[in-house]
Structures are given as structure tokens and as C-alpha cells.
Amino acid sequence: MTGHTLIEKAVALAVRAHAEQKRKESQRPYIVHPVAVALILAKHGFSDTVIAAAITHDVIEDTSITEAELRAELGVAVANLVMSVTHDDILLWDDKKKAYIEAVRAAGDEVKAISTADKIANARSLIVAHTKQGTDVWTHFNRGREKKLWFENAMLAMLRESWQHPLIDEYAALVKKMNALA
What does the pLDDT average to over 115-120? Predict the structure, then answer.
């Protein structure tokens, strides 16, 4: 794919990797999510490297793509960002979420931006799905409403402590809306 931009390569990889997947809360094609995350970051002026990482942020966690393949196709910088927002699936759910929060806390602004944009896109999807599905929307999450909201509130608290960016205000408004959902 010589001659293609980093973002075009990232889109091609993500489309291929997520080809058969659907979003759990909406059943829309999965690729809609990483594109939404990338658009949030593009709107805030982040680099092509960060946008490419946003587009591919779930490929290691949710597809058969390996870290080596990601590095080969998109380079070390993109792969390192993606690995920084990839959950450690060896851990139990609570420990995995706590480890993720602390990894993002310790990471740089680019990782915080990708993580926050991911949480914003997820929150928007959840809120829209809730308008259609009501309380049934919570059944799509492994640990239900209480644990989902615990995680979102813990992420928001960590971001407020460790980073300053307008994305945090957007995320905070969405977390407030999610907390108010039945």
C-alpha cells in the first residue's frame, strides 16, 4: 500500500480486522466505533499518528490482528499507542479495569486523548441505545449498569486528576447523562 497515507492504511486495517463484527449495544457495523473515535480526535487537532491509533485502537483486543502485524503495517508509534489502550484480558474484570485506569493515568497525553475519545464514543452510543432499549441496554455489558457506571466514573475522576483538555468536559457531561439513566 505504498503511497497511501497512514490514516488510509489504518482504515484499511481496521475495516479488514472488524469486517464481521457488530457493536453489542446497537448491532451496527463495528467499524463505525473506531471511525467515531478518530473523528473526535481529528476535530481536536490531534496528529495523524494519534488518529491512526484511534482507528485501530480495538484491533489487538477484539480481533485476530497481532501486535507484530500492527507494527509492520502502521509502524512503532501507532502500535505503541494502541498497546497503551489495550486491556489485559488475562486479568479478572475488576482488576483489568483498574489496571487500564492506572495505565492510562501513567501514559502521555496522546494515550489519554485516545482513551477519552473512546469513552466519549461509547457513551454516546450507550445513551442513544438507551433511548431505544431502555433498561435492557445494560444487559449488553458484562457486569451490568452498576459496574459500567463505576468504571466510567473512575475513568473520569482519573482524567480530571491527571490531564487538562476540553475532551474531559465533554466526557463529564456524558458520564452525568449515563449516571441519570435507569
Answer: 98
Q: Span 150-162, mean pLDDT?
A: 98
Average pLDDT, the chain: 95
CA separation for the pair 33, 5 (Å, rounded) = 21
In the structure, what pLDDT confidence band is assigned to residue 105 with cuts at 50, 70 and 90? very high
- Integer CA distances (angstroms), 23 to 29, 77, 158, in order: 6, 27, 26
Is 115 within the bounds of a domain? yes
For residue 167, being part of any structural domain is answered with yes
C-beta separation of 74 from 10 below 8 A: yes
Q: Is residue 1 part of a domain?
A: no
Whichever domain contains 76, its CATH number is 1.10.3210.10
Catalytic, out of 25, 58, 62, 161 = 62
**Which of 25, 48, 61, 89 is an active site residue?**
61
